[in-house]
Amino acid sequence: MDFILQPWAWYVGGPLIAISLLLYFYFGKNFGASTNFETICTIFGADKVSDYFKKDWKDQKFALFFVIGLIIGGFIAANYLIPNQAIDLNPKTVQELTDLGFANVGNQYFPDEIFSDEVVFSLKGFLILLVSGLLIGFGTRYAGGCTSGHAITGLSSLQLPSLLAVIGFFIGGIIATWVIIPILFG
Amino acid sequence: MKNIKFLILGIFFAIVLSKSQAISWYRFYEMFKFQSFHMYGIIGGAVVISMIFMQLFKHGKIKDINGNKIVPKPKKEGFVSTILGGTLFGLGWGISGACAAPIFVILGFKLIPALILLAGALLGAFIYGVLSKKLPN
Question: TM segments (chain B) (predicted)?
Answer without folding.
Answer: 38-57, 78-105, 111-131
